Fold this protein.
Amino acid sequence: MTTTKLWGGRFTAKAEEWVDEFGASIHFDQQMAAEDIEGSIAHAKMLGKQGIIASSESEQIIAGLKALQKELEQGDLIFDVKNEDIHMNIESLLTKKIGTVAGKLHTARSRNDQVATDFHLWVKHRLPEVLNVLTELQQTLLALATKHAGTIMSGYTHLQHAQPITYGHYLLAYFEMIQRDYERFQFNQKHTDLSPLGSAALAGTTFPIDREFVAEELGFSDIYHNSLDAVSDRDFALEFLSNASILMMHLSRMAEEMILWSTYEFNYIELSDDFSTGSSIMPQKKNADFAELVRGKTGRTYGSLMALLTTMKSLPLAYNKDMQEDKEQVFDVMDTVIASIKIFSGMLSGLTVHEARMLASTQDDFSNATELADYLATKGVPFRQAHAIVGQLVLEGIQQHVPLQKMSLAVLQSAAPEIEDDIYQVLQSETAVNRRTSISGTAVENVKKEILRHKAMLEVR
Ligand code: ARG
C-alpha cells in the first residue's frame, strides 16, 4: 500500500508503507504537539497582521488550531503515521477541520524552522522543572547537613581512611556540585530562548514577515539572526544533554557512596524501606536498587549525549534529515534527569544515619596520623621528618593493633621527645575536625556558616 504526501507534487512513484515508517517521526515527535500548535497560532497571527493572508483567513486558522489544542488536552487527537511527523499531522487535522484555507498556514514557513521552533519551545518549557527539582534537592541536602553539621565520619581518598570530616561537610560538597548544575541549566535557557521561526527552509523568505512579533508571542527573548544557523543549530539540545550528563555523574558518585555505605561492612547509613527493594530468594536482603538505577541511568544519559554529538558531527549546513534523531535523546534524558533528581531527594529525606558507627570508624584507625605530624611540625620538626616519625609509629601501631591515641606517652616520646601529653586531645577526631577552620575546611563552625550562606541564597532564588 502507498500513501499521498503533503509534499507529493513532484513525485510519480510512491513509497511502500514500511519505507514511510522508517522516515516517520510521529511516534515520538507527537510529544511536541502542544508546541507545534502554539507555534502555528503565533505564525498565523503574524501572517494576518502583516496582510500576507487575509485577517479572516488568519482568524479561521487560529480558531481551528485552538480547537485542536482543546482536543489535544482531552486526549482526543489521533495521529497517523502516514502523515510522517507532528507538523504534517497537525496540518492535516487542521485541513479536515477548516478545509483548504488551512493550506495558507504554511506560507513563509518550512518544516525546518517549524521543527526547530517546536523543539526549542519543548526544551524551554521543561527547563524550569529541572531547576525546581534541583532546588528541592539542594533544600534536602541542606536540611540533612544542618542535622549532621557535627556528625563525624571518616573522610576518604583512594577509598582509604584519610582524615576525619563531618557528614555535613560531605553533604555540602554535593550541594556545591548541584549548584553548578543549576547554573549550567540556567545558562542552557539562554541558548534555548531563541526563536528560529521565520528562517523558513534555510535562507529566509520573500514575504514581509515579522519575526520579532512571533518570537514575542511565543515568549522567546530573542531571535536567531542567521537563517542557516537557525534551522541547523542543535547546540541548545547538546548543552542540555551535556549538563544532564554532568549532573548524572554527580548523582552517580553519591549513589555509589550510598550503596557502599549501606553495606554490612560500612553500615554508615540505612535507606528507608520505600527506597529499597528486597530479594525474591534471600529474605534478609535490602537492596539500594534506586541508587543503583540512578547510577545505571548515568550511562544511558552519556549515551544520548554521544549519540547526538555523533549525529551532528560533519553535517553540512543547513537542515539534514539526520537531525530528526535529536528529539528522542532529549525527551528520554529529560524524563531521566527529573526522575533521578526526585529519587535522590526522596532517598536523602528518608535516610537513617548511623552516627555512632560513623564516629567509631575514625577511632580505631589511623586517620589522625596527619594530626600528629602537624603537631610535630608546629614544634619545629621539619614536616618531612615528622611524616617519617609518624609513619614509623603507624607501622608499629598496625602490627600491635594499637591506634595512635592509645599509645602511652613514653612510647610516643621515644619516637619524638617533642610530644607532650596535650597530644591526646589533638589526636581526637573531634579536635581534628574542629581545628580545620581554614576557609573551605570541615570544622563544624565552618559547616554551619556555609549552611547559612546557602540558605540565604536559596531564599532569594
Ligand atoms: N520530522 C522532521 C524532524 O524531526 C521535521 C523536519 C523535516 N524537514 C524536512 N525537510 N524533511 O527533523
